[in-house]
Amino acid sequence: xMATLQVNLRITAEEYLKSYAGSVKDVxxxxxxxxxxxxxxxxxxxxxxxxxxxxxxxxxxxSDNRFERIEKLN
Length: 74
Description:
With 74 residues, the protein is mainly beta. The chain contains one helix and five strands. The radius of gyration is 12 Å and the shape is globular.
């Protein structure tokens, strides 16, 4: 069974640009259930706008806890 985590993110465009510069590789967030999760910033690239990244996301993991996909909920 695949595990999922829901996170709410609000990352400015300037903050996200740090991942392109190489100074930031991971995003650390608190899931809706209170768990802290760390994931590669690059998985958010499809959701970057001029304002940055904001919204609720569902992150799907394989049964061995590897990233599988991410989807934007709103």
